[in-house]
Design brief:
- With 155 residues, the protein is α+β, with helices and mostly antiparallel strands.
- Strands 1, 2, 3, 4, 5, 6, 7 and 8 form an eight-stranded antiparallel beta sheet that branches.
- Helix 2 packs across helix 3.
- The longest helix is centred in the middle third of the chain and has 20 residues.
- The chain is globular.
- It starts with 5 loop residues before the first helix and ends with a strand.
């Protein structure tokens, strides 16, 4: 597959909107998807999940530090002012929920999800499937920006 089709992109958009609304009571506004040209995540806190089945893929939910802290604070009902293990776990859980919600809408690919990994800091390199052309779907919230970065390759 040379690029992602709307049938693959839309479930991830829906998943982000739904997850942030229900899990952290945060309204999200989507911007236009763009081709990803940099192998680094867009923001400093990122959850990463691999997808396998009749397609392989990588999903990265990347967000600002402010959004990660505020989301964790709401989810865990405690005030977080610095990135720690609890905040990273909350980002991993958000990533897992988003990928799981999208997976349910992509049944024809019979996808399995890996466990989420969470990275924090600059300089990490994300490896997408070799035949994929990853895209970035940017979003804005009142607490800071986030993006979903997707790379899929059908088998």
């Amino acid at each position: 597959m040379s690029g992602l089709r709307v049938e693959i992109i839309n479930p991830f958009i829906t998943a982000v909107l739904h997850t942030f609304d229900t899990m952290v009571q945060c309204k999200v506004e989507r911007s236009a998807p763009v081709l990803k040209t940099n192998p680094q995540p867009l923001y400093p806190v990122s959850g990463i999940i691999g997808l396998t089945g009749q397609a392989t893929g990588t999903v990265v939910v990347t967000m600002s530090t402010s959004l990660a802290l505020r989301s964790a604070s709401v989810m865990l009902m405690a005030e977080y002012t610095a990135i720690d293990a609890d905040v990273l776990d909350a980002v991993g859980e958000l990533t897992n929920i988003i990928a799981g919600h999208a997976k349910a809408q992509l049944e024809e690919y019979h996808l399995s999800l890996s466990m989420p990994n969470v990275i924090e800091g600059a300089g990490a390199i994300i490896h997408f499937p070799e035949r994929s052309r990853p895209i970035t779907i940017p979003f804005n919230t009142e607490w800071g920006p986030l993006a979903v970065e997707l790379g899929f390759a059908e088998k």
